[in-house]
Amino acid sequence: MRTRHSLQDQTVVIIGGSSGLGLASAQAAIHAGARVIIGSSSTDKLQQAVHSLGQQASGHPVDVLDAASIQAFFAAIPALDHLLITAAVIRPGLLLEADITALQTNLDSRFWGSVHSIRAATPRLAASGSITLTSGMVTQRPQPGKALAAVAAGAVETLAHSLVAELAPRRINVISPGPMHTPLLSGALGNDATRLQALAHTLPLKRLGEASEFAEAALFLMANPGMNGEVLHLNGGAAWA
Ligand SMILES: NC(=O)c1ccc[n+]([C@@H]2O[C@H](COP(=O)([O-])OP(=O)(O)OC[C@H]3O[C@@H](n4cnc5c(N)ncnc54)[C@H](OP(=O)(O)O)[C@@H]3O)[C@@H](O)[C@H]2O)c1
């Protein structure tokens, strides 16, 4: 019988690990016995997160908008067991009105950032290892101004399906979160508790998702040897309500 991989003494790399869903996943991975290397673009946030995570964590700066920075990030990591990418830069804007460079940033960060990261990480990734990318419920519930964010999220889902054969026996999956209570969502709603509560009230479970729930999903995809090419929807049913 094939059993769940343990994360004990495994190396888990999390790009976007200094905040929100990535930081919660780093905490959970350490709790499961892993060593964690986090990456993000702000050195201050990175240092603060590494400090809060404790001795099993280290961090290096990386900018998912810069291929050379991604290569330098992985050059400092000789071997890894699991890669989780939560970092992305979202630039909403109406297709006919927004600055085209801003719109392209959605794809440059989430899609091309994932592509560059996968290319740099895979030669160092254990054969039993995994890659987890992040998309979003926007693919199922597009809104005005979110078309390119949705396309970028959809692109990483297709990327994961499409790479299964090339990366095997390494595995690749995606988590598609709905609205989660993180600094990203709070910031997007002006750090206004009333707006956050109003959004929560529109959801079937009458609450936002918690970063710890994302972390559990991420660890499940890392540890379950049968999960491959999957998009795990984590939205409390909001996509269907
Ligand atoms: N929260 C939600 O409701 C929700 C819903 C659907 C999808 N998502 C997706 O889930 C992912 C994580 O979101 P979150 O809520 O955890 O956001 P968050 O709290 O803002 O965390 C984002 C992380 O990405 C890093 N990051 C941002 N730009 C970067 C760059 N250019 N290069 C490298 N790292 C960068 C940030 O650190 P630095 O600032 O230091 O770079 C931070 O560690 C995102 O892809 C988001 O689109 C979130």
From TrEMBL:
Gene Ontology molecular functions: oxidoreductase activity
CDD domains given in the database record: SDR_c
Alphabetical list of Gene3D superfamilies matching this protein: NAD(P)-binding Rossmann-like Domain
Top-rank taxon, per record: Bacteria
UniProt keywords, alphabetically: Oxidoreductase
Pfam families: adh_short_C2 (PF13561)
Keyword Oxidoreductase on entry: yes
Stored PANTHER family: DIHYDROANTICAPSIN 7-DEHYDROGENASE
Similarity comment: family membership: Belongs to the short-chain dehydrogenases/reductases (SDR) family.
Entry protein name: NAD(P)-dependent dehydrogenase (Short-subunit alcohol dehydrogenase family)
